[in-house]
């Protein structure tokens, strides 16, 4: 019984390129540009060719003169860890300050006697201020 699938007659390089193949080449080009191996014009030209490529044989020459891509070859913007730490610290500080304010409000609200004393002191202070400034309260 003959094999129903015909043998592969075209070389692997003439296979159609997928989106993943194009994206892999584009990531390699971006990493090379980030490491200073390519100029902006070279990257633009090669990216245009990569996204226009239909076959794997068209993608191979775009990265042939570059060192092989590695996991750590993509440049990471410096300072992100410092920014993340600063934001985290700011959030923790803000939450702690908010909790202290809530405790102070709860102290006054939970103890009516404290609220009454604070109110009385404010009223006495206002009356003394009015008399000192010469206002007639009668």
Automatic annotation (TrEMBL):
Signal peptide: none annotated. InterPro entries: DUF1707_SHOCT-like. The chain crosses the membrane at residues 108-132. It comes from the Bacteria. Keywords: Membrane, Transmembrane, Transmembrane helix. Residues 15-67 form the DUF1707 domain. The keyword Cytoplasm does not apply. PANTHER family: DUF1707 DOMAIN-CONTAINING PROTEIN (PTHR40763:SF4), MEMBRANE PROTEIN-RELATED (PTHR40763). This is DUF1707 domain-containing protein. It comes from Pseudonocardia hydrocarbonoxydans.
């Amino acid at each position: 019984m003959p094999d129903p699938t015909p043998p592969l007659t075209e070389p692997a390089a003439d296979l159609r390129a997928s989106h993943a193949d194009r994206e892999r080449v584009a990531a390699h080009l971006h990493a090379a540009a980030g490491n200073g191996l390519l100029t902006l014009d070279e990257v633009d030209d090669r990216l245009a060719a990569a996204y226009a490529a239909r076959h794997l044989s068209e993608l191979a020459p775009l990265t042939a003169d570059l060192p092989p891509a590695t996991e750590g070859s993509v440049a990471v913007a410096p300072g992100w860890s410092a920014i993340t730490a600063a934001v985290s610290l700011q959030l923790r500080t803000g939450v702690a300050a908010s909790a202290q304010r809530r405790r102070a409000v709860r102290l006054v609200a939970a103890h009516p006697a404290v609220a009454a004393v604070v109110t009385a002191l404010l009223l006495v202070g206002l009356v003394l201020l009015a008399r000192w400034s010469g206002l007639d309260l009668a």
